[in-house]
Amino acid sequence: MSTIVLESVLRCPACGHVKTEMMPTDACQWFYECEACKTVLRPQPGDCCVYCSYGSVPCPPIQARGKQGACCG
Fold first, then answer.
1. What pLDDT digit, counting tens, does each position of 14-68 carry?
2. What is the pTM of this model?
């Protein structure tokens, strides 16, 4: 069994700002506002949350189940 990583580095696609955030373990995060440019990030098609789209590691449920498993859907 591998360790679940709870910190992810989010990179804003609009301005390139990066910030390390703690990922929630009990819910998906569908919106995230960049603190630098105020762009609201939403998951890309096929991803369950902003961490899977813009983070350095996928969200905890995807890490636990692998890409085949559904996250919060």
1. 999 999 999 998 788 999 999 999 999 999 998 989 999 999 999 998 888 766 5
2. 0.85
Rg (CA), the chain: 12
Euclidean distance between the first and the last CA atom of the chain, given in angstroms as a whole number = 24
The answer to whether the beta carbons of residues 41 and 32 sit under 8 Å apart is yes
- Domain borders along the chain are 7-65
Instruction: Output the DSSP codes for the chain.
Output: -PPPP-EEEEE-TTT--EEEEEPPSSS----EE-TTT--EE-PPTT-SSHHHHHSSS--HHHHHH-TTS-S--
Exposed, middle or buried: residue 43 (CB in 10 Å: 0-12, 13-18, 19+)?
buried
